[in-house]
Structures
1.
Amino acid sequence: MKNMTVQTKCVQGGYRPGNGEPRQLPIVQSTTFKYETGEAMGQLFDLEAEGYFYSRLANPTCDSVAAKICALEGGSAAMLTSSGMAANFFAAFNICGCGDHIVASSAIYGGTYNLFAVTFKRMGIDVTFVSPKCTDEELEAAFRPETKMVFGETLANPSLVVLDIERFAKAAHAHGVPLVIDNTFPTPVNCRPIEWGADIVTHSTTKYMDGHGSAVGGAIVDSGKFDWTKYADKYPGLCTPDDSYHGVTYTERFGIEGAYITKATVQLMRDLGATPAPISAFILNLGLESLHVRVARHCENALAIAKHLEENDMITWVSYPSLPSSPDYALAQKYLPNGTCGVVSFGVKGGREAAAKFMNNLKLIAIETHVADARSCCLHPATTTHRQMTDEELIAGGVSPDLVRLSVGLEGAEDLIRDIDQALAAL
Ligand SMILES: *Cc1c(COP(=O)(O)O)cnc(C)c1O
């Protein structure tokens, strides 16, 4: 699959049936696996043989789907998690602990912001937020001796700010730490962060990858390029024996290509248990089979609507990085030349109240805490997903209090435009 196009990897990646085996990915809905001898099973526990023993750690259906996402991102190893939040939590907690520090873009998903700013603080992990538009000096100043990683989103949810991945990768690598990128919004169809220097990629597969609003899920992909052993003192969890796993040293046993995901699986998944259900992985795989077709159509519809909104004087501003008027247009053309995503943000004249009324007037487009499925929906982050943030924090995160987030689905663009126009006219 390595040299195949993204399209072919979407359809056929991760699972190759043998002679007479099912054409469609089998759902192995089994918690456990049977062995002939205790010794054979013992070898699995010692990580000396490969195989399945308990679905909290690994399951064939989930592994096949992880392998597909791994191929799509161009990584060396990958795992599924039960949600996107679990993916971001594991991605960070795999290399950070009490006393450590993270540099993160301030323009990130509200849930991840809360994980970093509140929950990690309680765990003794400190996070410094920097604007994705900060100067090189400001970025440099955010690092500390105990910094263990840099985090950002390719295309921020919901502000749609485009991260200059190369610049953040360069800064991270100059400090001997990996860049972790949440690539949920563009999906690997539109951007593959590893090609721009990212070391680890995370996903909320709940969004475009599933694409039908059917299954919550997450994924972590390791590029296999970050050499943990060069900074062994910083990453003892990867480079020194793990007493909780029979003294295994992950980098020695699994190399720099396999150490990170193996540790996250056998240690974090074992202890924290954010396992996806095999049936959820199967549903995700159905979504992935058409990801390349759907993402292109989401982008086409969103661009048509963004252009239409720009021409309506009831709309104060439109943010969509594929619009030439966007301040991020040049960055989007560099990192996302084939399109960005189906989400468009805009402000309704009259602010907070007008935005709420506009949304109530919509008939086809539903009010939902969701983005990125086949059905169009919209949301007012300031009063819902981001309600724990102050106005100052909202603005720092690129989410103004009047922002309406519209997730453009796969309906006919003309119908969606008619719905928006009638909702604005009724204000
Ligand atoms: C939705 C989302 C998450 C969280 O994912 P869940 O699957 O809802 O847990 C993380 N990052 C981004 C960018 C998201 O859009």
2.
Amino acid sequence: MKSETLKYYSTNLKSPEVTFQEALLRGLAPDGGLYMPVSFPLITFEELESFSDKNYYEIAFIVLNKIIGKEINKQDLLNLCLDAYNFDVPLEKVCYRKYIMRLDQGPTASFKDFAARMMSRLMQYYLALNNQHLTILTATSGDTGSAVANAFYGLKNINVIILFPDNEVTFMQRKQMTTLQNNIKVIAIDGKFDDCQRLVKKAFLDPSLSHINLSSANSINIGRLLPQSVYYFYAWSRLSERVDDKAVFSVPSGNFGNLMGGLIARKMGLPVKQFIISTNENDEVPEFLRTGNYKSISPSKNCISSAMNVGHPSNLARVVALYGGMMDETGIIIKAPDLNRMHEDLFAVSVTDEKTRLTIAEIYKQYNILIEPHGAIAWQGINEYFRFYKNYNSEKQLCISLETAHPAKFPEEIRQIINVDPILPPSLIGLAEKTESYFSLENDYERFKALILKYY
Ligand SMILES: *Cc1c(COP(=O)(O)O)cnc(C)c1O
């Protein structure tokens, strides 16, 4: 297929189709829906076979070039990929053909680096082409803020303002945001994560700020989703034995952006047998698959896998759309998806905190492998998968479990469970001593707005 302009539609179907560039810079569609590619270009068998000889950044280039098409110059895209993906993606063997893919070697030791680094570079690319400037506003409960701050740090044409709840992020998470400075402004709000999000939403709707080109960097942006399909191709290219060797991936899921990346990869031709959706006790999606009825969980439950404490996943509307249904932002199903097809492709499990801790202990004792709570939920998903599909050959099936953060980001939890101090990855060494700079603000819109006007 020759590259042509691929259009993006809104899951609410009430906005016009747009180019990749527009979808990227807008974030949310005007009708409140999420942008999705109208079609999925195929990676050919020859390309799939060639991946085993290619570096991560080269695979990223081939996959992204397919789906972005001629909206970007090829050489420029290759350079962006080379610049964004300058870290390892280890695949660690556990037993038989079961592996853990460690997506924790980026600058903030979280899988969110894969998406944030590419999205920020794509945004900067288009802004520079159009001679535009952008201000990113993001509320964070921890991991997103640090990945976004790091990814946008030092980029031209973009300022970033990040809000976090003063008492709800860990010391390390705060340090990852507040020690950068330059074009990254960080604000501690005397309130909860929801207060931060409310302030950001109000700013987006404020007519007196309409002269500022504001955008968001959360996981609803299509520019964050597409790069997350690449590591599925990468893992498969390193571990598959034949071009029709179908893998099972277990994805620890909160807002379902990671899973969407996998589903996109499959649509583009990646040989996947099934995806395991592994959630913590916020089990609204496993329940949805079981019963066909969707009920969000509010407030969401506080589990130790804190980045997955989501009671209504923001990307669920996209998953529903992929299976022929329609769901609005609030979670109301306007058209039911094809549940049978979902059951063929997806296996969903919910894992308790107690089981999460046991899994961390078991895999450490049995295989001397250290994982953190999110990755442990994914690994437990694989265990339950073979308990359910008793006739599947657990020794022959290629299985890849996604580890989405570095264990050193959860030192207290891990120490309590197995009495081990995780070794800091290079990206986190020395962070504790670095100088911080951030504002503290009461939960007050007018004061927040004054800061935006000062820093945009
Ligand atoms: C964000 C995050 C997740 C959840 O990913 P989604 O794309 O929201 O499903 C899982 N693990 C970690 C460590 C995260 O930071």
3.
Amino acid sequence: MMNTNLLLFALLSAASAFHLPSEGDEFHFKSWMAQHNRVYSMKEYYERLQIFTENKKRIDKHNEGNHTFTMGLNQFSDMTFSEFRKSFLWSEPQNCSATKGNYFSSNGPHPDSIDWRKKGNYVTDVKNQGSCGSCWTFSTTGCLESVTAISTGKLVPLSEQQLVDCAQDFNNHGCNGGLPSQAFEYIMYNKGLMTEENYPYTAFEATCAYKPELAAAFVKEVMNITAYDEMGMVDAVATRNPVSLAFEVTSDFMLYSQGVYTSTECHKTTDKVNHAVLAVGYGQDSGTPYWIVKNSWGSGWGIGGYFLIERGKNMCGLAACSSFPVV
Ligand SMILES: *[C@@H]1O[C@H](CO)[C@@H](O)[C@H](O)[C@H]1NC(C)=O
Ligand SMILES: *[C@@H]1O[C@H](CO)[C@@H](O)[C@H](O)[C@H]1NC(C)=O
Ligand SMILES: *[C@@H]1O[C@H](CO)[C@@H](O)[C@H](O)[C@H]1NC(C)=O
């Protein structure tokens, strides 16, 4: 004979294991869908509602705790981290190991804070890589745009698509990953990079359509900062220009909203880094030093498209693989 209490218990625990979405969850989900222009088939609606509800629970739980950063809903809130990783991060480790870099830092003294966005017209608007693992091209253009603007006084958005389509000979792999240092090498040997306007971004890999007569930015030398020399990065950002870096994105970062990001989920080694971005400055917030970093997930993500990440601890391997060009 079946014990009804036991049956009830089994049903309830099954429900809680699957976190059956409530009316409130559906309400949140529908307003999120409207905000992000999402339309689903009936079947997909329930799958996405489930994932969204899990993500929202994680956000609420995190935000109740004592952390230096908050999580929030964003355009990725209906995705699992493994789906997210497939669309936006490198699928395999890149050759990112400047065991001995060629950048020698001056050892300071350095200012307590610096923000290249405020020093002049040196940083272009936040861009959006779409569903293509091309972060490395945005880190590259972002850095070269700034270095060129600091040198010439003219800030011009440059072409990611040229790097996606044309930089394969330097161990870059279009939508499947690449490295800013290798992209700078490509630009140096190719003798130029076109503008965003003349070679616009599509988020798909296509045949190289580079036109040398339209080259708009150039690289004379590639500076690699020795792996794990985070002081070298501080020196470069303080005394020269924004710096391209790579780090490991884990599931907690997908839901970042604001504040100084720190993680115990990520690693610190070159073989784990899976996303390239651009450090445009640094500072500190009630004793916690941080980097100011430009991302390429649109201006709706994070703090207007930027994030802060703890500085001085090689957080998530951010000092493993940094570089910048000399123009
Ligand atoms: C929150 O964390 C900070 C930094 O770790 C600590 O100084 C503070 O005491 C914590 N506050 C609470 C309420 O736990
Ligand atoms: C790493 O470098 C080796 C040797 O140059 C190359 O064969 C390999 O494809 C590179 N790996 C990646 C992910 O670019
Ligand atoms: C900098 O890094 C790139 C790519 O990782 C490499 O090809 C290049 O040789 C390095 N440059 C120096 C001067 O070590």
